[in-house]
Amino acid sequence: MFFKVNVQGLCSNCERIEKLEYEEANLKKEIDDLQIDYRKTEQAYKSIKEDHDTLYNKIAEQAKNDIKKEFQETLEKVEQLQKEITEKRNEVIVLDESIMLETFALHKPKFKFTSSAEYKEKLEKIRGKQAASVTGAERVSD
C-alpha cells in the first residue's frame, strides 16, 4: 500500500490531522485568554457592585438623616405654633373678660383722676394750651 506524501513527508490525512491539532491549540489558547478576560471582568464587576452598594447605602443613609432632620424641624415648628395658639387663646380670654367687665361698667380707668371734675379741669387746660399754640402764643407741652 502506498500513500501519497507531501514535501514534508506527510500524507493528506496526516496533514489534515496536523492542521486540526494546530487549530485546536489556537482555540484552546483563545479559550484560555477568554477565561482570563472573563475573570478580570467578573472581578471588575464585583468591585463596581461593591462601590455601587456602598454609595447607595451612603445616599440612603443621608436621605434618611435629612428626612429625620426635616421631620424634627417640622415637629419643633408645630410645637412652637401650638404654644403661640395657647398664648393667643389666653389673650382672647383676657380680652373677653375685659369686654365683659366693660359691658357691666367695671372697666379699669385709663387716667389717674379721682373724680370727673378733675378730668374736666385737666381737659380744659389741654384745650387752652392747644388754642394758644394755634395762635402761636404757646407750644403744647404735656
Structural topology:
Blueprint: H1 12-103, H2 116-135
Provide a compact summary of the structure:
The protein is mainly alpha-helical and 142 residues long. The protein contains 2 helices and no strands.
Total strands: 0
Helix segment tally = 2
- Distance linking N and C termini: 149 Å
Could you say which overall geometry the principal axes of the C-alpha atoms support?
Answer: rod-shaped
Q: What's the main sheet like?
A: none
Quaternary state reads single chain
Helix content: over 70%
Tally of separate domains: 2
Q: Average pLDDT value? A: 85
Rg is: 52 Å
Structural class: mainly alpha
Q: Enumerate the spans where pLDDT stays under 50 for 5 or more consecutive residues.
A: none
Instruction: Spell the H/E element sequence.
Output: HH
Strand content: under 5%
How does this structure look, described?
The mean pLDDT is 85. The chain has two helices and no strands. The protein has two domains: 12-108; 109-142. It is rod-shaped, with a radius of gyration of 52 Å. The protein has 142 residues and is mainly alpha-helical. It starts with 11 loop residues before the first helix and ends in a 7-residue tail after the last helix.
List descriptors.
142 residues; mainly alpha; 2 helices; 0% strand; rod-shaped
